[in-house]
Specification:
By secondary structure, the protein is mainly α. The protein is about 55% helix and about 5% strand. The protein has helices spanning about 15-30, 40-45, 55-65, 85-95, 100-105, 105-115, 125, 130-135, 150-165, 210-220, 240-250, 250-260, 270-290, 295-325, and strands at about 1-5, 35-40, 75-80, 145, 180-185. β4, α9 (about 150-165) and β5 form a beta-alpha-beta unit. The structure holds iron/sulfur cluster. The site of iron/sulfur cluster (SF4) has 14 residues, from α11, α12 and α13.
C-alpha cells in the first residue's frame, strides 16, 4: 500500500515519539511504499508565534528519523513547504469544505479547550484538517497511520474527497483515493515526573541522549509513591518505570519486574538499571546511525525525496486543475 504520514518539526524527538510513531513507521516501511514528510506548515498552525527555526528543526527531525531506522532509499522523505502543490490543493479544497464540518470536529473543540497558553482561534488552526487532507490525497495515499484522536480528521478527508468527486469529477476513474486508516497502537509513555512527556516539562528522554544522560534521568524518575523502603512491596501498575519496561524490555524482564516489585524481591534502583539496559538496546544503534550521518547526507536525502514527491504532486494537480477549470457546464 502507499502510506503517507507526517510529523511536526517542533524539537528533538524523545522516547514518546519513538514508541508512538517512529517504531510504527519502521514496521510499515517493510511492506509498504511510504511517504514521510516534515509537516512544517502544520507546526505553524499552533506555533506561529514561537519563532521556531523551522528550517533547522526540519533537518534535525529528518536526522532523528534516519537515526531511528527510517530508510532513506526505499521511502520518500520530504519537507511539506517545499512542495507548493500542498498549498495549492489546500486552497482549492478550502473552497468546497463546509465550515460546519470543521467547527463540529471534536478534536478541534477539545484542543480549543485544552490549549490555553496560545491563541489558536485562527483560520489556519480551524482548517488544518483540510491541509492534512491535501497532504494525504495529493499522493494517492491508500492508508494513513493515525491515533484514535485523529479519526475525525480522516473522516473529514474522506468526506472532502467525496464532495470533490461529486462537484467536479464525473469520470469513472476518480481523481483521488479515499484514504483508509491504520489505527496505530499508540501507547502513551509518560515523562519522568509522571506528567505528559514533553520538552516543556523537561521530563523526556531524547533519542539523542547519551547513555549517562539516560541513566541520570531514570535514576531521578518517580516510582510507586507507596514504596518507601526496599522491603515494602510495590505496585508496578502505578509506576511509570514499569510502563517503560513494557515498552522496551523483553517479556521475561517485564515478568521479573512485576513479580519482584510485588514481593519486594527487587529494589527500585535495580529495576531502573534493567530499564536503562533495555532502553540502551534501542538507543545505542540510533547513536551509531546518527554518528554516520552528516548534514550534507541529510540534505541529499531530502532533495531526492522532494524530487519524487514533486513529480507525483505536479501530476495530481494537473488532473485537479483540469477537473475544476475545464469543466463542461
Ligand atoms: S520495583 Fe520497579 S516497578 Fe516497582 S516501584 Fe520500583 S521502579 Fe517501579
Amino acid at each position: 500500500m502507499r502510506i503517507v504520514s507526517g510529523m511536526r518539526p517542533t524539537g528533538r524527538l524523545h522516547l514518546g515519539h519513538y514508541v508512538g510513531v517512529l517504531k510504527n513507521w519502521v514496521e510499515l516501511q517493510k511492506n509498504n511504499e511510504c511517504y514521510f514528510f516534515v509537516a512544517d506548515w502544520h507546526a505553524l498552525s499552533t506555533s506561529y508565534e514561537d519563532k521556531l527555526n523551522l528550517k533547522r528543526l526540519s533537518r534535525e527531525l529528518v536526522k532523528d528519523w534516519l537515526s531511528a531506522g527510517v530508510e532513506a532509499n526505499s521511502n520518500v522523505i520530504f519537507i511539506q513547504s517545499h512542495i507548493k502543490e500542498h498549498s495549492e490543493l489546500y486552497l482549492l479544497l478550502n473552497m468546497i469544505t463546509p465550515l460546519g464540518w470543521l467547527e463540529r470536529n471534536p478534536t478541534y473543540k477539545d484542543q480549543l479547550e485544552q490549549i490555553k497558553n496560545k491563541d489558536i482561534h485562527t483560520a489556519g488552526f480551524l482548517t488544518y484538517p483540510v491541509l492534512q487532507t491535501a497532504d494525504i490525497i495529493l499522493y494517492d495515499a491508500e492508508a494513513v497511520p493515525i491515533g484514535e484522536d485523529q479519526k475525525p480528521h480522516l473522516e473529514i478527508a474522506r468526506e472532502i474527497v467525496r464532495r470533490f468527486h461529486h462537484l467536479y469529477d464525473k469520470k469513472e476513474e476518480p481523481i483521488f483515493k479515499e484514504p483508509k486508516e491504520i489505527l496505530s497502537p499508540t501507547p502513551r509513555l509518560l515523562g519522568l515526573d509522571g506528567k505528559k512527556m514533553s520538552k516543556s516539562y523537561n521530563n523526556a528522554i531524547y533519542l539523542s541522549d547519551t547513555k549517562d544522560e539516560v541513566w541520570q534521568k531514570l535514576r531521578g524518575a518517580v516510582t510507586d509513591p507507596q514504596r518507601v523502603k526496599k522491603t515494602d512491596p510495590g505496585n508496578p501498575e502505578v509506576c511509570l518505570i514499569y510502563d517503560y519496561h513494557k515498552a522496551f524490555s523483553p517479556d521475561e524482564v517485564v515478568k521479573k519486574v512485576e513479580e519482584g516489585c510485588r514481593t519486594a524481591g527487587i529494589g527500585c534502583v535495580e529495576c531502573k538499571k534493567w530499564c536503562a539496559a533495555s532502553i540502551e538496546e534501542v538507543l545505542e544503534p540510533m547513536r551509531q546511525r546518527r554518528a554516520s550521518l552528516d548534514d550534507e547526507m541529510v540534505e541529499d536525502i531530502i532533495q531526492k525525496g522532494e524530487k519524487r514527491a514533486k513529480e507525483e504532486a505536479a501530476k495530481k494537480m494537473e488532473a485537479v486543475n483540469r477537473a475544476i477549470f475545464e469543466v463542461e457546464g
